[in-house]
Design brief:
This protein is mainly alpha-helical and 81 residues long. The chain is 79% helix and 0% strand.
Length: 81
Amino acid sequence: MPRASQERYPRHPAIDLPPRVASVGIVRAALLGALFIVGRAVYFVGYTRAAEARHTGFLLSIVPNTILLFGGLVGVVRALF
C-alpha cells in the first residue's frame, strides 16, 4: 500500500529508474534531475517573454531527461542478460 505522499507526488520513471538499475549513481541522477528542474524554469521564463526564447530551457530539460531515460533502459537490458 503506497503512502499518501507517494500517491500525490508520483515519481518520474526517468529520474527514479537509473540510480536503482543502471548504476548511474544517485548523485549524478540527482544532479541531472536538478538540471531538469532548472531547465523547466528557464523554459517558463523564456516562454513568457517570447515563444522563440524557450529553446535554451527546452534543451536544459530534455537532455538530462533523455540521459536518465536511456541510462535506465540500458540498466534494464543489462539486468535481463
